[in-house]
Amino acid sequence: MSIITRFKDIMSSNINALLDKAENPEKMIDQYLRNLNKDLGKVKSETASVMAEEQRAKRVLNECQEEMEKMERYAIKALEAGNEGDARKFLEKKGTLATKLSELEAAYQLAATNSKQMKQMHDKLVGDIGELESRRSMLKAKWSVAKTQEKMNKLGASAADSSNTISAFGRMEDKVNRALDEANAMAELNADPKDDIEELTAKYDETSSVDNELAALKAKIQNNG
């Protein structure tokens, strides 16, 4: 596709809008710069041929106009010489050239328009490239900071989740301990009450092993005596 056919797209392009929509401005700005430089290369390449075409169209147009003026001069000379037939032929030729002149004028206007568009595209591309070049370092630095902050935010969220998990386990442990304490208390309440009399009689029924051994030794001594 000729670069001229992309005139409207190039002239209406807005680098700021493109960067605002980009998910990754760092990659977008590099890609857009490559595209702009590629387009600029085509513009420079075609500008010479377009300007040459404009000059050629202008030259052919001028030659046609000069030829028409020439035919008119010869028609006048023929009439002055009394040769109306020759004058008619010169005027007929002039009429043919007039038709051709209209076509040449249209061709020249198209060539001139193309040449003007090429210059406009050139100036627009040079301006966009200059702006992007000046902003590239700044945008890349901001993008790097943004990505770093995003990673830190994710790490912070993970740490918060970990703290929440630990807190949840702590609450669960407290709940289990409360349940165990309540179960022990309930078991104590459900136990059969102890008889104080039984404990008291058992106290006096118990005989110290030392007393028993002492009594046995006394009996042994008496028997030996």
Q: Please report the total strand number as a whole number.
A: 0
Number of helices: 6
Structural class: mainly alpha
Q: CATH fold name, please?
A: Helix Hairpins
Radius of gyration: 55 Å
| Beta-strand residue percentage | under 5%
How many domain modules?
A: 1
Mean model confidence by pLDDT? 79
Q: How would you characterize this protein structure?
A:
There is one protein chain. The protein is mainly alpha-helical and 225 residues long. It has one domain: Helix Hairpins (Orthogonal Bundle). It has helices spanning 7-12, 15-21, 25-80, 84-190, 196-205, 209-224. The longest helix has 107 residues, at 84-190. The radius of gyration is 55 Å and the shape is rod-shaped. Belongs to the PspA/Vipp/IM30 family. Keywords: Coiled coil.
Descriptive terms for the model:
225 residues; Helix Hairpins; 6 helices; mainly alpha
Q: Layout of helices and strands, plus pairs?
A:
Blueprint: H1 7-12, H2 15-21, H3 25-80, H4 84-190, H5 196-205, H6 209-224
Structure summary:
This protein is mainly α and 225 residues long.
